[in-house]
Structures are given as structure tokens and as C-alpha cells.
Design a protein that fits this description.
7 strands; 2 domains; alpha+beta; 434 Repressor (Amino-terminal Domain); elongated; DNA-binding; Jelly Rolls; homodimer
Chain lengths: 176, 176
DNA sequence: TTTGCTCGTTCGATATATGGAACGCTTTAT
DNA sequence: ATAAAGCGTTCCATATATCGAACGAGCAAA
């Protein structure tokens, strides 16, 4: 296995542990593993068992993929990057976009077909979005829905923001 | 570690392998592990090393959270296809999946981390989703949000359904 | 200072995950 | 029919992940 992955595992472990103010001994005890084991893992040596990873992940309260998979760094682009995820059929048509915004951008969206609704779900970072004058500040996991046929905007602050944008073209029913 | 998790790992492994038309021997050889090892893992016994899991995940071409975490498990029923769209960082972590369901499938999802919230946005088709006994019938552009740490289900009717599933792992803020 | 506590690391012993060679079974070819 | 090749499983030897104990360092209270 890639040695790099073990390194990242170690660094993730340590940073997550420190972020929670836990000592190595405390975490090891809480997880029910030997601290010698945890020590080696944080050092980047070792090749933990699923059982071990599981116990640690439970204690750190993270889905365990977070321990081993590299943090997705925002692509080095300027401005805004948009990707069409999927597009539904008719009645009503639904478009889903994945979107990544650099810090300090302001985007005033064009108006769409009358009756269209737009939903924004923030995946990571922070984003201000909504109708002009009625925007909301959204963090990860938060969402906002507004009419897409009126001028609306996206604005980022100090950080990158990744989000999903869903556009429903025929106004209908409840939307998120 | 939870024996249940090892079972699910085994079932995931086998279903993913079969879905790709690989024999156990082939996969083991391709991944560079002994087939005795893989055999034991699929049987639900054993406690694989991170190295082993990694090698298998690479060969199956799945982000390896798919092997162990419940949401993206097209296990028992075929006819469900799941793709990880994006994954946010910490505080809170947000996972976004694209999902396609065949007609007449019923999927009872396992529980995630306590406090997790799950949002379903239907892109096309129709889908019944929500907590057991509190499901809602959703059409294109409609969405539903419910706690993900309780048993919940997806059910399709006569048609295919395409949807987005967003999981927010740390309960926090409005998810309406 | 000394004592006592906790920290993270390192060491040897043990438990066990892995690899490799059998095995019996089924399928395909001769 | 027999042979040959592939399948998945089960055994044992070995590599190694884990454990528990001992260690030195840092810190606070006596």
C-alpha cells in the first residue's frame, strides 16, 4: 500500500485528535486500543486493522473514510467552476450542478424561466446566496431555496465554497 | 468491532466483485493478495488490514468508504447505483451521492453516525423516501429531509428514479 | 529538592492477518 | 470416458499488528 496514505492517515489522526483536545493516552483508552498502537499509527508507520480504524473513528466521531482519504483540495481555478451532474426529464425539468467558488467572488445570476426554483446546498466552506437583499449565509450542510426568475447572487468570503445547485424549472411542490 | 460491520463488508465485497464479473481468484490476483484472504473476508470473518482494504478498493474502483459504509451499498437488491459526487471537510462533514434506482426496489438503509441528517432530492422519476412509517412520495424537484440515524427507506414504484442524497454528519444549524 | 502524575515512545511477548499449498468440486476440452 | 483448467474453501507456517510493561521527559504540588 502507498506509504503516502499511511502518512496522511497518521496526520489526520493526530490533527483530529488534537482538535478534540484529547491526549494520545486518552484516545487510546477510550477506543480500547493500546497507546503503543496509536502512537505508531500517528507516526505513519503501521498498517492498522479495520477493527482498529473503526474504534478510532467512532471515538473521533468521524465517518471513517475521513481518516484515510485525502482532503479534497479546491481546484486551483479562478472564479467559479461549474459541472453538470445530472439533468432530469420533463415535468418538471430538474438540473443539478456541482459548483466550486473561489474566495471573494460575487456572481449575480441571470434570470431563468419564469416559475423556476433554485436550491443551493453548501458542501464545504461558506457562501452567501439568495435573492438580492434577501441573501442567507450558509455553512456546510445548510441549504437555501429561492425563485430563480429574479436576480439572485452568490458571494464567498475568505474561504472556498463547494456547493450543489438544483434548478427546478416548473414551479411545483415543496422544495428543500 | 461490530461483527455486523464485518458481515456487511463481506457482502459488499462479494456483490461489488460479482457486479464486475470477477472471480474471487481473479480479484485476489489483481489486488495482489492471497485468495484465501479474500475468501475469508467475503465470508464475514477476518479483520482486514488497511493495506488489504486499500488494494481491493483500488481494484474494484470504488472510493473505499463504499466498502464499509452503508449508504453506498448496492447490496441485496441490485438495481441501485450509487456514485459519490463530493465530500466536504470537517464541521460538519457533508457527503453527496448521486443515486439511481430501478423500478420496484425497496432499500432499507442502515443507520449512520448519530445526529446525521439525510436529504433526498429527486431529479427524475418518483420515489418514496423517509423514516419508516413516515415516508413521503417525491417527484422531480421535490426533496425530503430526515434523521439518518434511524432506519429509513427508499422505495420506487413503476418508474426509475434518479436522486441526490446529501448526508450531513454533524447535527447543526438549519437543514430544514 | 522530592514525590507523584501524565505524557508519548520503545521494547518483548502474544495474538492474528496474511500467504501459499493443499483440497474437493464443477466445467470445458480432448 | 479422461484430462485439464478454474473455481472457492480449508489447512498450516510465517509475517506482523496488537498488547502490556517499562522507559525517560515534562510538569505541578508538596
Amino acid at each position: 500500500m502507498d506509504k503516502l496514505s499511511l502518512d496522511t492517515l497518521g496526520r489526520h489522526l493526530q490533527s483530529l485528535r488534537l482538535a478534540r483536545g484529547l491526549s494520545l493516552s486518552q484516545l487510546a483508552a477510550a477506543a480500547g486500543i493500546a497507546k503503543s498502537n496509536l502512537s505508531r499509527l500517528e507516526a505513519g508507520n503501521g498498517n492498522p486493522t479495520l477493527d482498529t480504524i473503526w474504534r478510532i473513528a467512532v471515538q473521533l466521531e468521524v465517518p471513517f473514510s475521513q481518516l484515510v482519504e485525502p482532503v479534497s483540495a479546491p481546484v486551483e481555478e479562478e472564479g467559479i467552476q461549474v459541472r453538470l451532474i445530472d439533468r432530469g426529464g420533463d415535468t418538471p425539468q430538474v438540473d443539478v450542478y456541482w459548483m466550486s467558488c473561489a474566495p471573494h467572488i460575487l456572481r449575480v445570476a441571470e434570470t431563468h424561466t419564469p416559475g423556476a426554483q433554485e436550491s443551493v446546498m453548501v458542501i464545504s466552506g461558506e457562501l452567501e446566496a439568495g435573492l438580492e437583499g434577501e441573501t442567507r449565509l450558509l455553512g456546510p450542510g445548510e441549504s437555501h431555496t429561492f425563485p430563480a426568475d429574479q436576480p439572485h447572487l452568490y458571494r464567498t468570503g475568505e474561504t472556498w465554497a463547494t456547493l450543489l445547485v438544483t434548478i427546478v424549472y416548473a414551479a411545483q411542490g415543496d422544495v428543500l
